[in-house]
C-alpha cells in the first residue's frame, strides 16, 4: 500500500515537471540561444524535481513518524476507540524501515525527474520562440 502511495507521488512529480517544461519552453529556448548546454538544462530540472522530492520525503517522514507515535493520543482527543476502553493500538516505529522508505521515495523522485528533464533539453529554440 505504501509503495502505491510513493508511485503516485512520483507520477505527481513527473506531471508537475512536465507542466513546468511546457510553461518554460520559451525561457529554455532563450537560455539555449544564449549558449546553455543541454546537460546544464537537464541538471536544472533534475535539481528542481529532486529538491521537491527531498522536501516532500522529509516532511512526510517527520509527520508520519509523529502521527504514528502519537496515534493513540490523537484518537483519544477525537473520542475514537477502535479496541474498546483502556486498550490502545500497538505502535512500533522501526527506524530502518523509515529510512528505507524515505530513501526509496527520494530515489524514485530523482528517477521521476529524468523524463521531464530530457524533454526540456530537447526543446528547439527556433520552434519554441516562433510564436512568442
* Morphology: elongated
Helicity range of the residues? over 70%
Name the beta content range: under 5%
Distance between the termini: 45 Å
Q: Rg to the nearest angstrom? A: 21 Å
Number of helices: 7
According to DSSP, the number of beta strands is 0
In the predicted model, the low-confidence regions spanning at least 5 consecutive residues are none
Q: What class do helices, strands and sheet pairing give?
A: mainly alpha
Mean pLDDT: 86
Verbal overview:
The chain has 132 residues and is mostly helical. It contains seven helices and no strands. The protein has helices at residues 2-23, 25-33, 38-69, 71-77, 95-112, 114-121, 125-128. Helix 1 packs antiparallel against helix 3 (38-69), helix 1 (2-23) packs parallel to helix 5 (95-112) and helix 3 runs antiparallel to helix 6. The radius of gyration is 21 Å and the shape is elongated. The mean pLDDT is 86.
Summarize it.
The protein has 132 residues and is mostly helical.
What descriptors fit this protein?
single chain, 132 residues, mainly alpha, 7 helices
Could you outline the blueprint of secondary structure elements for this entry?
Layout: H1 2-23, H2 25-33, H3 38-69, H4 71-77, H5 95-112, H6 114-121, H7 125-128
Amino acid at each position: 500500500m505504501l509503495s502505491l502511495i510513493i508511485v503516485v507521488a512520483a507520477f505527481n512529480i513527473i506531471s508537475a515537471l512536465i507542466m513546468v517544461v511546457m510553461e518554460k519552453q520559451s525561457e529554455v529556448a532563450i537560455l539555449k540561444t544564449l549558449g546553455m548546454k543541454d546537460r546544464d538544462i537537464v541538471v536544472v530540472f533534475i535539481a528542481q524535481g529532486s529538491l521537491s522530492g527531498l522536501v516532500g520525503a522529509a516532511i512526510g517522514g517527520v509527520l508520519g513518524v509523529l502521527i504514528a507515535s502519537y496515534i493513540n493520543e490523537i484518537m483519544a482527543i477525537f473520542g475514537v476507540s477502535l479496541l474498546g476502553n483502556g486498550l490502545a493500538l500497538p505502535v512500533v516505529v522501526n527506524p530502518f524501515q523509515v529510512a528505507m522508505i524515505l530513501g526509496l521515495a527520494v530515489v524514485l523522485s530523482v528517477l521521476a525527474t529524468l523524463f521531464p528533464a530530457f524533454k526540456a533539453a530537447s526543446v528547439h529554440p527556433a520552434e519554441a520562440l516562433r510564436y512568442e
